[in-house]
Amino acid sequence: GPIRNQVTLGGQLNTTLGRAELGPILLALGARGRLASAEGARDLTLDSYYGAKEGSVLRRNEIIIRVSLPKNTSEMLRAKGCELRCSHAYKVASRRSFCPGLITAGFAVELDGEGRVTQAVLAYGGLGWRPLLATGSAAALKGKPWNQATVIEVVKQLDEEVAALAALEAGDVRRPLVATLFQKFFYQGIG
């Protein structure tokens, strides 16, 4: 029979390429994975799937059998002290279709009843061998009001953090996109 190409979520994750566009999106959504082999199965967060060194924590003879996203019902969010959760993904490419992205971003922000950030995920792809999490900038958002002043305050830190993680030079065309996509998330979302 004919050979067909097929794209799977597990295959996309297993490439461990920085340009793999689903990584940052799944990180922002809080994805978890289940890996299995003849020796047994194990669960892990998507962030822990990517090892500290180039590659993944996938062991020899192990496969990805499931990728799951948490269910975020109103009741579950309220139990965490969250009234609203907003997430969005962005891709910037040199052409509109069938072109790998220069940079992909996945963002999620959870807000309490007073509009303060209780949780944030700022993830980027296309900047290194794995998706990058801007954990310092996400921590800087916690407890602050989700408003323009907070976003402007965090943008400089975000630029410096991601540039250091990805070893981006000042002239790299992707560097200004780090801040621009985060600001777009704020202005297009719930800001």
Q: Which spans have pLDDT < 50 for at least 5 consecutive residues?
A: none
- The overall strand count is 7
Rg measurement, Å: 17 Å
**SSE order in H/E notation?**
HHEEHEHEEEEHHH
Rounded average pLDDT: 87
Instruction: Determine the number of helices (DSSP H or I, runs of at least 4 residues).
Output: 7
> What structural class is derived from the secondary structure elements?
alpha+beta
Give the end-to-end Cα distance, rounded to a whole number of Å: 53 Å
Spatial sequence of strands, sheet with the most strands: 4-5-6-7
Give an overview of the whole structure:
This protein has 191 residues and is of the alpha+beta class. The chain has helices at 9-14, 22-28, 46-49, 74-79, 135-141, 148-166, 175-188; strands spanning 32-37, 40-45, 63-68, 84-93, 101-111, 117-125, 132-133. The chain has a 4-stranded antiparallel beta sheet with strand order 4-5-6-7, with helices on both faces. The protein has a 3-stranded antiparallel beta sheet with strand order 2-1-3. Strand 4 and strand 5 form a beta hairpin. Helix 5 runs antiparallel to helix 6 (148-166) and helix 6 (148-166) runs antiparallel to helix 7 (175-188). The longest helix has 19 residues, at 148-166. The N and C termini lie far apart (53 Å). 30% of the residues are buried.
Concise structural overview:
With 191 residues, the chain is an alpha+beta fold. The chain has seven helices and seven strands.
